[in-house]
Structure formats: structure tokens, C-alpha cells
Amino acid sequence: MKSHILLAVAVCFLFPFSCINQAQKDEQLAQKYCGSCHVFPDPGLLDKNTWEKSVLPQMSFRMGIETSLLSSISPDDQLEVLRTIPGEPLVTPEQWESIRTYYLKNSPDSLGARTATISNIVEQFTPEPYTSIPEALTTFIKSDTGHNSIYVGSRLNKLYRLNEKFMLEDSFLLASPPSFIRFSIDGDPILSLMGIMDPNDQPKGEIIALHEADHTKHQLIDSLKRPVYFEIVDLDQDGLEDMVVCAFGNYAGALIAFKNLGNGKFEKHTLQYLPGARKVIIRDIDNNGMADILALMSQGDEKIITLLNQGNFKFRINTILRFPPVYGSSYFDVADFNSDGKFDILYTNGDNADYSMILKPYHGVRIFLNNGNNDFIESWFYNMHGASQAIARDFDLDGDLDIAAISFFPDFKKHAEQGFIYFENNGTEYVPQITAMAATGRWLNLEAADIDQDGDVDILLGALNFYNGVPSELAQRWKDKNISIIVMRNKEH
What we know:
Blueprint: H1 2-14, H2 16-34, H3 48-62, H4 75-82, H5 93-106, E1 125-130, E2 138-144, E3 149-154, E4 158-163, E5 168-173, E6 178-183, E7 189-193, E8 205-211, E9 216-224, E10 227-233, E11 242-247, E12 254-260, E13 266-272, E14 277-283, E15 292-297, E16 302-311, E17 314-323, E18 329-335, E19 344-349, E20 364-370, E21 376-382, E22 387-393, E23 402-407, E24 420-425, E25 430-433, E26 443-449, E27 458-463, H6 472-481, E28 485-490
Helix pairs in contact: 1-2, 2-5, 3-5
């Protein structure tokens, strides 16, 4: 072994250009094959061990080189997964070894990520914990202020309705875990059910209407791959409510528009054949009087796109922001941060659930300002480990936008309280503030609403207490307290 190392050193010393040329060839191969379907992932984005043990094996599998990973996938998913894998390897074994060598030679031993201590305590809100729901396994939390109700989804196939005092009013058993809720014209909830919540590609998800009075359900759309979000909107201006659905999936998925045919039927129009559709926002981007779509795609080819409505369910698609495939895009929203009349983008990345569960210095919350031509430039970034959602509101009613953010993968060992951070806009900077109460759960859901109707905006946090990566002592405290919801009650009024 030692003689081989000495020989390699001697070769590079005597023939330096051959070693440089080989390194360049390795990089060129990586650039060509690892940047063809998504942004090229720089080796420095992950540490050497994570590349070697987790990400490179997945890359090999997805490029059709090493197929043994298929045996670790549920038999019910394998057919769908195989459809996403090339029938023949994209590269030769020698080319793959060059790509692998490039990543392992150029990646650091550690990312050196640290968690900054936050000393400021939230004063704008009073945290109120609630245990109204039996399990801290919330999948969404949504306020219906028109009816003084709060709806909470549960991983255990349930929907709960609470009153404005967070007392349980009713519960509904569903076919599978609900992921999101909207309200129809008559006030009854419309729900997306995931089929299976954990990563999968089985078309078992659906959209249903729930009649609360008698607990009956009516299926509107079926055969969806893990739908996580949807919007109700009249896309073709025929007076009927259509839907845009984020079928997240896992290896396979899609962003889909459904035309309402008016007879209880919906016609499917697939807008993107990609996994990871996370959220859509509806607005008239090009001011032509028709509803357009902004969408976050967060799996593999991570990007924010606009879909400009051309009529008759035809859309012109533009990519406005694109991110490396290890970024862990998790959420986005729009708001006018600089008061220029143009919508800007608030974005979070911190999904650490897949193949690289390490702290990353590029995880966090970002603002991208619109230059007026729908080109977006990053203007602010805060490194919030595992950031999963952020919303912008004028919480302190001083005329500018503040930010509330949650993390599903904070630094649990050192700073579990950073699962929720409030960023107060003081006119010159966003000041991060924390509450110790945030360390009492793992926050997947964030909602902003004036729940007590006193003229200021409150914040709701919903816990999904998974224990992976959580120190045992902290996990036990979660189990003992069983806090499913925290209300950050605004003290402005």
C-alpha cells in the first residue's frame, strides 16, 4: 500500500501535467453528467463522508450504474422508481470512477457549520402552549377566522377542529394523513390526503370535500402521488373553480392543474413531470387578467418557476430561481419587502430528511428582491439550520415587514430553541429573537392569523415530534409535555 502511494506521488512529481489533466477531465465529466438535469453541485457543499456514504451511492443509482439500492425500496414503489431510472447506465464504470474521485478529492472533511447564539428574547409575543390534541403529530395548522375555528391535521389520519380558545370542538377520521386544507364557497373544508405520508411514489393520494355536519366525505380527485399542497382558482375564466395540486411524490411526482368540468369531474393537465412540487402561489404576474402560477419545485432540480397563463390550460414556463440539488428547498412566499410595488420572494431551505443530515452553512432564510423585470437578486440571508418555513407580516404594526420562521432540523444538541425564530425589522436590519418555549417540540407547521381578532397578527406553531436526530433527554421532555400547538399571541393590541 505504501509503495503504491509513493509511486503515485512520484508520477505526479515527474509528470505534473498528466495529473492536472486527469483532474480537469474528472471535473469536466462531473460538470457534464451532474449538471445536466439540475444545477451542478459543487463538492464543497457536502463533507467527504456524506458524499461517499450517502449522496454518491444515490447518484450512482439514479444514473443507472448501481441498481442494488432498488432492493431497499418498497415493492409497491419499485415500478414507479424504475421509470425514473435510465435503462442503460449514463456513463461507463471508468467515467463514474472519475466523477466519484472528483467529488471525494475536492470535498472538505467538514463543512465547519456552527450555530450562532441568539441572545434576544421575543417580546412582541406571549407563547402559549396547548395540548388540546392527543398527539403531537400535526401535518398542518390553518385558521378559519371567518368561523373562529382552527383546523389541525394529524399524521394519524385525523382532522381536528378547535375553537378560538383552542378547545377541541370536533374530530374527523380520514382515509390517510391530511396535508393541507382550503375552504369551499359553502364553507366546507377541501382537503388533500397524502395516501402515505412518508417518502413514496404510490398514487394513493386524493383531494376530498368534507361535510362537517354529518362527517361524510366526497372524493374530488384521486390517484395522486403524495399531494402536499393545492390552490383553488378559476384558471380558464369559465366561472368554475379549478385546482392546482402539488403532487410531491419521491422519485416521481408532478405539478398538476385540474380543470373543473362542472359535473363533479376534473380534467388533468400536467404542468411539470418532476418530483418535489412543494407550494404554489396564484397571482396575475404579467397583468393580462388571467391567473398565473408561481411554484417551488424542491426535489432534485430545485427551483422557483413562473407559469404564465396563455389560456386553455396552456402555460409559458420560466425559471426565475434555481438552486443546487442538496440545498433542501422547503418553502417560499411573496411579499413586497422594499415597497416598490413589485413582489419579492421569501425562501427557506433546510430540508435535511434525505441523504445528508448534517448542519449546513447555506441552510436558512433568504429574501430575493424583484428588480422590476421579475429578475430576483438575493438581498438578505440568515443561516437558520434546517429552515422549513417562513412568513412575512407587519407583526409590530410599524409599517415594515417582519419575518417568522421555523425549522424542522435545528441544532437540537445545542440550540433546540432555534426551532422558531422571530426576525424583527427595525428599519435597518432583521433582528433574530427566540423563545425558550420553542424547545418543547419539533415544528413543521407555521400559520399567521389574527386569531383573537384584536387587530394584530398572531402566530401558530404545529409540532410533528419525530425523534430522529434528537437527544434522548430532549425527546423525553417532548413526550412528557406532549405540546402539539404553540400560539405566539401578539401583544401589540
